[in-house]
Amino acid sequence: MQWSEGSAFPIEDALEMIFVFDRRGTISYANVTAKKKLEYEEDLNGRHISDIFPGTFKASDDGFCTEYPFGTQIQNLVAYRKNLTCFPVETRIIESTVHPENYICMANDTLEKEYLNREITHVKQEAEQALKVKSEFVANVTHELRTPVNGVLGNTRELLDQVTDEQILKSLRLIERCCGDMNKIINNILDFSKLEAGKFVLEPRRFHFRNMLDYVRSQHINKLTEKGLGFFMTVSPQIPEYVVGDELRIVQILNNLLSNAQKFTAVGKITVEVVRTARVNDKIELFFIVKDTGIGIDKADRDKLFQSFSQVDASISRKYGGTGLGLNICKQLAELMGGKIEVESEKNKGSTFSFSIWVGICEGDDALSAQPEDNAARPGMFMAAPQEEEGNAEDAILYGTPENKEVLKKSLSKLILCVEMENWEKAEMFMETIRQLTQGAPREVSRLILKLKMAVQKENYEKVSAGYEELSELIK
């Protein structure tokens, strides 16, 4: 039987080469791709299969001889074009079930595939080299930046002990604060660079777990107290006194989450809870929960939180500052310690960040877990700063409610007190609280808040005093 162009063959425009030959090796059908790839145009029909695969099929008196294993298994062959140039192909040659005297050959040109694979390998190598160069550059630059910043910071602190002039002291404190902020940014960039390059190494060691939490508490309690926020920290008595892990990185995650909670919470409270959730051999899983009553996050925006250089919206970095790296670093650190980090949040109702890690325990340490009564007796295991009445936080955030006006008046009083004492750093903190408390306010209030914030940033006493008086009148 002869195959023809008009046969009911549904593969005329297939991307792979398809042709049919009989038991004498004579080709009776070839699709468009086969003709194009083999450069035979219209005269491929009637050719012998050995013209296409001379290394596999040989012409004989009976038709052809071959050692090709007919079947569905893919074989690598070399196909020859009409001009006798060749290219590699992946083929399957099967006997036709409809016409047993015919064979159907399906072949894919792998030359382009091999070329693309080489290109992919080359691009991958270039990308890896570029990443290595970038990581080394970032590491070198951050180290170079840190040296002069620490030099400025060290000299500034020496001058703070020697200078008595208030105006100069004010400038020196500003320099000290800016150097501290710069060091935080440098550390974030360096950590991110190491994590991205896969060169970040944890340094586990045995440490006192509750002393670590005391240290974290001491870093935040003053600011939270000044802001009027409640602060509670509880630790499960099932957690041993000593654990083995990277204490510095656990502190880094907690500090980041608590700093964000304090930054985005105007009224209410922040709670930290640590529980033990599992044990496998000499490892235990610790679960940390950091909950606040702050501005919250829309459900649609939660996925952006842990992306590098990402903020929930473009105005976040202008309103609150930050590089957008902190939470991404926390996510990667938690994963390096065998856990993960998650968030639950609702707009204007607060956020709950939780993360888990695995730490080791030494023989005998597990028996030293604190008893419930020890938590009450030990300083720092259950702490509270002044806070609003339970349940009032949500009402206080909504502008115009009695609770909101009461908290707003208190924050304004603290703001003007800081201005009177020329403590502009704390004044900015209370100004941010006032801004959060007046979200959704009428236009005249919003414009006044903007003017007042600019006056605080410029440390203009007269304009701050005037804005304070005007705002106090509007919120009576």
Give a quick precis of the structure:
Residues about 1-10, about 315-320 and about 370-390 have low confidence and may be disordered. The protein is of the alpha+beta class.
Describe how the helices and strands are arranged.
Blueprint (H helix, E strand, L loop, with lengths): L16 E6 L4 E4 L1 H7 L10 H4 L4 E4 L2 E4 L4 E10 L5 E10 L6 E8 L1 H50 L5 H32 L7 E4 H19 L2 E6 L6 E4 L1 H18 L4 E12 L2 E10 L23 H5 L5 H11 L4 E6 L3 E11 L11 H6 L15 H5 L4 H19 L3 H14 L5 H15 L3 H14 L2
Parallel strand pairs: 9-11
Antiparallel strand pairs: 1-2, 1-7, 3-4, 5-6, 6-7, 8-10, 11-12, 12-14, 13-14
Helix pairs in contact: 3-4, 4-8, 5-6, 6-8, 11-12, 11-14, 12-13, 13-14
User: Over all CA atoms, what is the radius of gyration?
Assistant: 36 Å
Q: Please, how many domains?
A: 4
Structural class: alpha+beta
Measure the end-to-end span.
100 Å
Number of helices: 14
Give the number of DSSP strands: 14
Residue stretches low in confidence (pLDDT < 50, at least 5 long) are 1-8, 313-320, 370-390
Helix content bin: 40-55%
Q: So, the CATH homologous superfamily of the largest domain?
A: Histidine kinase-like ATPase, C-terminal domain
Kindly identify the CATH topology of the largest domain.
Answer: Heat Shock Protein 90
Q: What coarse outline follows from CA principal-axis ratios? A: elongated
The side-by-side strand order for the widest beta sheet comes to 2-1-7-6-5
Please state the oligomeric state of the protein chains shown.
single chain
Q: Which range does the strand content fall in?
A: 15-25%
* CATH architecture descriptor name of the largest domain: 2-Layer Sandwich
CATH classification, class level of the largest domain: Alpha Beta
Largest sheet: 5 strands, antiparallel
- Topology as a string of helices (H) and strands (E): EEHHEEEEEHHEHEEHEEHHEEHHHHHH
Arithmetic mean pLDDT:
82
